[in-house]
Amino acid sequence: MTPRDLAALHARCFTLPRPWSETEIADLLVSPHVWAEVAPGGFALGRAIAGEAELLTIAVAPEARRTGTGRMLLARYEASARRRDASESFLEVAADNSAACALYRGAGYVQAGLRRDYYTAPGHVPVDAIVMRKSLKDD
Question: Are 93 and 65 in contact (CB under 8 A)?
Answer without folding.
Answer: no
